[in-house]
Amino acid sequence: xxxxxxxxxxxxxxxxxxxxxxxxxxxxxxxxxxxxxxxxxxxxxxxxxxxxxxxxxxxxxxxxxxxxxxxxxxxxxxxxxxxxxxxxxxxxxxxxxxxxxxxxxxxxxxxxxxxxxxxxxxxxxxxxxxxxxxxxxxxxxxxxxxxxxxxxxxxxxxxxxxxxxxxxxxxxxxxxxxxxxxxxxxxxxxxxxxxxxxxxxxxxxxxxxxxxxxxxxxxxxxxxxxxxxxxxxxxxxxxxxxxxxxxxxxxxxxxxxxxxxxxxxxxxxxxxxxxxxxxxxxxxxxxxxxxxxxxxxxxxxxxxxxxxxxxxxxxxxxxxxxxxxxxxxxxxxxxxxxxxxxxxxxxxxxxxxxxxxxxxxxxxxxxxxxxxxxxxxxxxxxxxxxxxxxxxxxxxxxxxxxxxxxxxxxxxxxxxxxxxxxxxxxxxxxxxxxxxxxxxxxxxxxxxxxxxxxxxxxxxxxxxxxxxxxxxxxxxxxxx
Length: 480
Ligand code: 5AD
Ligand code: SF4
Hints:
This protein is of the alpha/beta class and 480 residues long. It has helices at 9-33, 47-63, 85-103, 120-129, 145-157, 208-212, 220-232, 258-266, 286-294, 311-316, 323-336, 355-368, 395-416; strands at residues 38-43, 66-67, 75-80, 109-114, 135-137, 167-169, 190-194, 196-197, 216-217, 237-241, 273-277, 301-303, 341-348, 372-377, 424-432, 439-443, 449-453, 462-470, 474-479.
């Protein structure tokens, strides 16, 4: 049966027409000037943003821009993140810089999009302090980029004053998914594939549900068709992306599950590796664990954000699992996939966190034996329930816990490192090593890096490598 979501074909057609119209305009300018226009994208934040930037890149290339690696470009775009305060501050720093650059580059366009733009206060600040910005859009309407560029150029052509040229298009939420627009990807042999957008979980510290909107899943058929065409294009590894991949399919009619989707992807000839990110412990089903256990293609890595080891705090965080159920989940996963590598996200200094709560977190870290973890100091996000809690933690207490947690994680990583020393394992060769050109760098199924001597014609291949020596975060290997 065909599963239906909210795919909008009419919008896709309209946008493709605008892309073609702009392309004709840019081609004729190129014929006159002989100089191709350049673009540069600065991406902040998570894998979802990186994937969005690839889509933006696809549209810009189709219009006729070529990519350049500095902000000295005809079109500069900042794809922003707002999950923590420091991500916002970095963007303002970059905007100050690009504003000065723009003064000496007539015709340059500056655009800003992403999660931060879904917040009214950030947009007001940009309108007031960075009036040279040309285009502002959000997380829900990336597919409209060509239309926004066209509007901005038209504003100039009809002679609007500088202050009225800024184009702002922000949507609060959407249930629309626009398929089949131009696309781009960083590596020819691996690709990110969105499967679900948005998040319905409302963890009490997190701004994501407010800036990325309600959960909406892509149709299974659209995902499978995209992966098949990626395979035809040389892709061997896919990373399925969603704020909570385990919620996949809940809003489809009829409903589908993430485990079901994985089984369908597994059947695609030519796909060698399947990764996914991120999993919410409350939704990770036994069915999924069984599928992972039986699979030949699902990679042996699971990112399972725990946030805190204290059941008391998890409740206030609205995570909907306990310390015990998290540990039980880990036990069942390790049973099904014994050589799995587990990684996590942990927040320290959440409002009201006591020393006892924190010790529970350290206890879980010790019991699970994570391969690595992202650790975050709690950051107050306006609009979230936690921001209004009156028991915020002193900076020095939070910092002290952060350092102790980091040291516990380092011990855990050190214990996990070297587990596969002297084994022969398959490596997807990704690139020439950035520090030493004689070496290639690739990844094991469990996501660990391997550096080894080899010819760069191997890039994109999956080959067996002998893991000669563990260096903690990577192995030195030998090609067989
Ligand atoms: N403060 C600190 N860390 C946060 N995260 C999300 N919101 C906050 C916040 N307000 C972390 C969580 C999440 C990761 C992507 O970012 O650990 O899993
Ligand atoms: Fe944020 Fe929680 Fe949604 Fe993750 S699951 S994006 S932490 S609200």
